[in-house]
Amino acid sequence: xxxxxxxxxxxxxxxxxxxxxxxxxxxxxxxxxxxxxxxxxxxxxxxxxxxxxxxxxxxxxxxxxxxxxxxxxxxxxxxxxxxxxxxxxxxxxxxxxxxxxxxxxxxxxxxxxxxxxxxxxxxxxxxxxxxxxxxxxxxxxxxxxxxxxxxxxxxxxxxxxxxxxxxxxxxxxxxxxxxxxxxxxxxxxxxxxxxxxxxxxxxxxxxxxxxxxxxxxxxxxxxxxxxxxxxxxxxxxxxxxxxxxxxxxxxxxxxxxxxxxxxxxxxxxxxxxxxxxxxxxxxxxxxxxxxxxxxxxxxxxxxxxxxxxxxxxxxxxxxxxxxxxxxxxxxxxxxxxxxxxxxxxxxxxxxxxxxxxxxxxxxxxxx
Length: 367
Known about the structure:
It comes from Parnassius mnemosyne. By secondary structure, the protein is of the alpha/beta class. 31% of the residues lie in helices and 24% in strands. The chain has helices spanning 2-17, 25-43, 76-84, 131-139, 155-166, 201-210, 226-234, 254-260, 277-288, 317-324, 328-331; strands at 64-69, 101-107, 110-116, 143-149, 169-171, 178-182, 188-192, 216-220, 238-240, 242-247, 266-268, 290-295, 303-311, 332-338, 347-349, 359-365. The strands form 4 sheets. A 6-stranded mixed sheet has the order 2-3-1-4-10-11, with helices on both faces. Helix 6 links the parallel strand 7 and strand 8 (216-220).
């Protein structure tokens, strides 16, 4: 393992030494590709699967999963205890939490699983202090809460982002709009729909040859960087929304709080005093992009207590049926929908109809 870490350190040192200009773009592209390959080996080592981490993987329950990531002693356990009412050991020393502690909250009818992960330290992506197991759990979450201490500057934020990005997590980003397809023959075919400032055919060929790919179609639909292209080739990147929680705001002044509120994706809170939790939950709901659909049995009132929760990307009647039970789709005839997604109340719709938040649905089966 140390040899991989040494190689990574050597490449990072060379990248730091190299000036950034058009002449060195090709060389930097090769270095970035090599770095990405080594990082992937760190994430999934060659050979048999390693021993399972004790108590790190927690069974997924509920409609969404949120992981708390942060340095030791920033208040992750206090936050979990006060949000979910689950006792996670809290003490005045670092590394109090040693394994994942799960909790669950109900918000707007959706069950949301919260995971209090152990604190990570600098160098976590290279395996220091159980960091890799912690980040591996963070990869499976639908939303990441990065918990920061308000008194320590945003240096922590940069370090944490660097650790997570090094492990294939992309925070608050969209997947690159790059079409990439391998083929058997015909060489590298590069199409661009807009002018490129960094990638040209030579750079693309060099990066691809580093992955031993010599025949592929690539379409760049925006001004892409070599990092974006490497992300697409690797294909194991996880794009996760993220909220930065600035904890311990009871120790700063009102003027400082006003400045902090202007930082994007940030929510200032005090886990100990339970300040600003409503704002946090509202923002959490917005970033999770969940929608609630109520069911209505024939001849009865809709059940507003137990909504079916769908993700905003999958909101068709078919997804709704599959969430209830797999067999419903086979017997599906049509559905009656009340709500903002239809013109008439109720309206008869087919299986492709896209639902909106808080619609009421009644499914009619074939006889």
